[in-house]
Amino acid sequence: MKQFLCILICACSIQAMFCRVYAKQLTVIPIPSFIQEKKGTFQISRFTKIYANSQESLWVAEELAKHLWTDTSSHVYIMRGGVIRKNSIIFKRVTGLPKEGYYLFVRKDRVILEASTTTGFFYGVQTIRQLLPPVAVKFVKTVRNLSIPSLIIKDSPRPEWPDS
35: exposed, middle or buried (C-beta count within 10 Å: 0-12, 13-18, 19+)? Predict the structure, then answer.
């Protein structure tokens, strides 16, 4: 009986250890092609600005601003130019990325979302929304500051497998 209890306690301890490790892992669906976690977080607050200078990114930037308004009750302004300051989310149009691909760089002072098409920006924003704490997605109006973990994500559609 004592042996059984020892094994049970060890099994529960190991399971608890794995649960703690698993809880710290990021969950982004679908799994990006490349993800690298960094130290720190980006804080979204009432001082956060979104910079969107291209036509491809403007609509998606507006959608992100609406979601952040719903999640934080703080208006996040969209800037169409000017000097980029700290605490900003930057939509940067780049050439050479796959049609629906994007690069997401989250640092302590800014978030940079690079894409070449509106679809790429859209997928990048969906990833940003998944990185927000769960309370943000539940439309709790009392949340004032949100954080996104610092990381690098590179993603693009994978080739489809032919039907067998």
Answer: middle
